[in-house]
Amino acid sequence: MTQARMIELRNALEGAGWTVLGSPEQDNLFAVYNDQIFWKLINRSGKEFDLVFFLFDYRGGSTNKLSDVSVAEEKSTGKSLDFAKINTEIWKSRVRSFVKDLYCLI
Fold this sequence. Notes:
The protein is an alpha+beta fold. The longest helix is centred in the C-terminal third of the chain and has 15 residues.
């Protein structure tokens, strides 16, 4: 289900004019490195931004499971997106707000 949330976020970002790439593997948006997933966001003018997804194991240990993604943060602004169930209005509202907040970077 987390992968579906991430795809929904990617679609919303692309719909707002962003190019979304995995980092360091451009074609892999779901690669986990040291409990994190990295996306490179590129705006219309070509400026790059880093979006980091943080994974937290419920016991505090290391994890590489997508289901453990709890928050995404754009590094230069500190703007974050907390994950909630994808089929709720809370999730949809959070995605809209997050994409709107990042729109100022375009």
